Amino acid sequence: MVNLGGIKRANIRAVIVPLRRPVIADIGEFRQWPLILVDLELADGIVGSSYIAPYRASAISSVVAEIRDIVHQMEDRTGPFDAFQTARKALNVIGVSGVSTLALAAVDMALWDALAKQAGLPLACLLGGTVGAVRAYNSNGLWRHRVDTLGTEARELLGEGGFTALKLRLGNERLQDDLAAINEVRNAVGSHIDIMVDFNQALGLGDAIRRCCGLDDQGLYWIEEPIIYNNIAGYAEIAKRVRTPLQMGENLYGERDLMNFVQAKAVHYVMPDLMRIGGISGWLRTSGVASAAGIQMSNHLYPEICAHLLRVTPTAHWLEYVDWASPILAEPLTPIKGEISAINRPGIGISWNEEAVTKYAIPV
After folding, report:
1. Which of these, 108, 51, 100, lies nearest to 74 by C-alpha position?
2. Prediction pTM value
3. Exposed, middle or buried, 78 (CB in 10 Å: 0-12/13-18/19+)?
4. Starting from the edge strand earliest in sequence, which strands make up the sheet with 361-362, in order?
């Protein structure tokens, strides 16, 4: 393999883009979405690009500072595996979860993009797979707002790309309120549509056991994150009591976190988030744990990149489709018949709409 050389220039920018539908969950309400854009120009002239979404605009400055520090640590280690290992060791002294991993993921994904471009291959092909369709569910709506609007919104979401599966957010004050939301969506879309539900960690353990058992007869595809993400014993207790499979994983920081859940028998499905799991390198390591445990693996956000990764994930399950980064992408993904295919060109398929980036840019 040709050595890509060192990092010649790092261009790190931030934007805040509008959301077509507001995100309303127990974690808060978001009408705009912050993104950090990373472009790493290497010595041979190849530019690797990536983005991460740190949720809160106020967190951008700290994440950007950590990205710059990690880039400085890279020296000539621009092969993704070597760079990942080097950064992980360097970060041990300040902790490898939280901001450290978010920043490492941004650098890691940009380096993988550069490597795939240097090889002249889409990421999926570089990793030994092929570019092709991945079944997806539409996660662009059905947040916690007025129940009488959910049915109309559910039909709209299905029509945005021929989807046959949707995600609905729950965690309302009473079980009856959650049941009303489910019924509104089910009556609008029919029994043939798969409905995943997500509590966004809204419940305590006792209420979660009661609530999840109360939903067991609703025909739901999965119940996602009913309690705080790191309560392994709590998830194990819920898993013993409910019939509907539990989904979690968007808040895992690396493969060891998943292994802890597997050993505790606390998870049925897993859905890592590229920003928290450690980018593409972190995903590949975590997919090995999922494969060994026989746990089906979906993604959380970042559909542009995960459309590649799910093609080489042994227990690949669903792709979560959101269009939150689309306003600044030159070629947003297009859902077709409920499936997503990665952009078939060298790299991870991300390029910027520079006019839009300028429009939504904020100082960093």
Report:
1. 108
2. 0.96
3. buried
4. 47-52, 28-42, 7-25, 361-362
CA 336 to chain centre: 20
| Single-letter amino acid code for the residue at 49 | S
Contact 138, 161 (CB under 8 A): yes
Contacts (Cβ under 8 Å, ≥6 apart) of 126: 115, 116, 119
Question: What is the Cα–Cα distance from 140 to 150, expressed in whole angstroms?
Answer: 12
Mean pLDDT in order along the chain per 10 residues (364 residues): 70 98 86 97 95 96 96 82 88 87 97 97 98 98 95 98 98 96 98 97 97 98 98 98 98 97 98 98 98 98 98 98 98 98 97 98 96
Gap between the Cα atoms of 261 and 238, Å rounded: 13
Return the half-sphere exposure (C-beta side, CA atoms, 13 A cut-off) of residue 246: 29
